[in-house]
Amino acid sequence: MTDLTLAKSLKIITAALAKGKELDLKPLSVVVLDAGGHPKAFQRQDGASMMRFEIASGKAYGALAVGAGSRWLNAQAETRPHFLEGLSAVSGGKIVAVPGGVLVRDRKSAIIGAVGITGDSSDNDEICAITGIEAAGLTADGG
């Protein structure tokens, strides 16, 4: 398994924020978690509102918790709300079930972490996460 290094984490963030600037998005906040759900790196653009670390982390944490991107979790919230209620309860409310939480996979498809982005629409957040992950030479799995 490839480790998700600090250098790769920072490259993910840099590329994700660049994509946000290219798309003229609202101020973004980006967190990279390792496979155990621990923060590797976080950056919040000037003008980003409060609680952005918690929201970005919740998207990434949720993806890690179920082994699928937060887009999958969002679909489950619509079709199986009881599942998300239970998941939220057992996680202590840490999971944010909207797109923008993307798994990071290595070349062998092993999950080595997750990226969570918040600040613009969930779809745009996810686009930036995928761009960042791919710029670091890793595989993005949005669910």
From TrEMBL:
SUPFAM superfamilies with a match to the protein in the record: GlcG-like
Pfam families: HbpS-like
InterPro entries in alphabetical order: GlcG_carb_metab_protein, PduO/GlcC-like, PduO/GlcC-like_sf
Span of the signal peptide: none
Protein name per UniProt: Heme-binding protein
Native source species: Hoeflea algicola
